[in-house]
Amino acid sequence: MKKFLQILLVSILGVFLVTGSAMAVPFNTRPIAATTGDLDGYTGSLQDIFDTIGSSIDVYNDQSGAAIFQPTSAGTSATYITSMSWGAYSGSYEIGLYQYGDTSTNVKLFDEDISAGNVSINFAASGTVATSYFNEAASAWETVDVQTDFGNTFGFYLTSTYGTWYSEDDLNGTGQAQMLMYEAKGDPVEINGQHFTTDEDHWYVAMEGADQLDWPYGSGNIDYNDFVLQVESVQPVPEPATMLLLGSGLIGLAGMGRKKFFKKS
Predict the structure, then answer these.
(1) Which terminal CB of the chain, N or C, has fewer other CB atoms within 10 Å?
(2) Please, what's the b/e burial string for 62-98 (b: 16 or more CB within 10 A of its CB; e: otherwise)?
(3) What are phi and psi of 246, to 5 degrees?
(4) For residues 17 and 218, what is the distance between their CA atoms, to the nearest angstrom?
């Protein structure tokens, strides 16, 4: 009896630690309202971008609430799909990863000088993250950025002429969605002449480069096609509800074990 109670206590404590940690992980409310912005219905819309590369994603119904990710392997990559509407603007931009819990710790993926092709992302056991891209003109890999003590839990950021935006809605000044996340659906896609067979570790990040509250009188038109990336070998950190279900299941199993224990006694 004493041994069982000890096991039960440790199990319940573990559940609270896991779910307590998970509750701190952000999970955005999705989908955004269909009346917010225009995601389809014209050439160059976000839906048109997915259709063009061969993805069966539906821009409204397939939105994910995922905001924070982790790599599924030490070597991952990001592929720049397109920047449909940004050509209408002038100014610099930067896209990258920020450390979960510390937006000041970040590593760059793309900017106005690196606006095509793939960027390799290497997560070292030491916590260092290094990004690099293949320079076609030089026929060599070149370093984009290196960040020590980064870890392996991250979100996405975009710094544009109009501000800095994050994949966590509550970090944005408006508290609104500036990025939409989509899980790939296993479709064979073609991006800038490259062929990919997407699986569950492939995700798409669709970014809005201006303040959502600018719509419709200012710069933000909320179409999320300013920058679109494909990221592979990553997975979202589980949402709190999933972890709570896991926790309640473990407690239920513990209760069943206790019942069987007393029957045998």
Answers:
(1) C
(2) bbbbbbbbebeeeebbbbbbbbbbbeeeeeebbbbbb
(3) -60, -45
(4) 45
Residue 75 phi/psi, 5-degree rounding, is -110, 115
Query: Does 71 sit behind a cis peptide bond, omega within 30 degrees of 0 on the bond before it?
Result: no
CA dist 106 and 100 (Å) reads 9
Q: Are the C-beta atoms of 37 and 177 separated by less than 8 Å?
A: no
Q: Where are the domains of the chain?
A: 1-25+239-265, 27-237
* Interior/surface letters 112-131, b for 16+ CB within 10 angstroms, e for the rest: eebeebbbbbbbeeeeebbb
Instruction: Identify the residue whose tokens are 């992302």.
Output: 121
Distance (Å, whole) CA 12 – CA 92: 51
b/e code 213-232 from CB counts within 10 Å (16+ = b): eebeeeebbbbbbbbbbbbb
Q: How far apart are CA 46 and CA 81, in angstroms?
A: 11
Instruction: Find residue 70's DSSP bridge partners.
Output: 235
pLDDT in tens, the chain (265 residues): 544 444 433 343 343 334 334 445 678 999 986 555 688 888 899 999 999 999 999 999 999 999 999 999 999 999 999 887 665 455 789 999 999 999 999 999 999 888 888 999 999 999 999 999 998 888 999 999 999 999 999 999 999 878 899 999 999 987 889 999 999 999 999 998 999 989 879 999 999 887 765 554 445 578 899 899 999 999 999 865 433 333 434 444 444 444 444 455 5
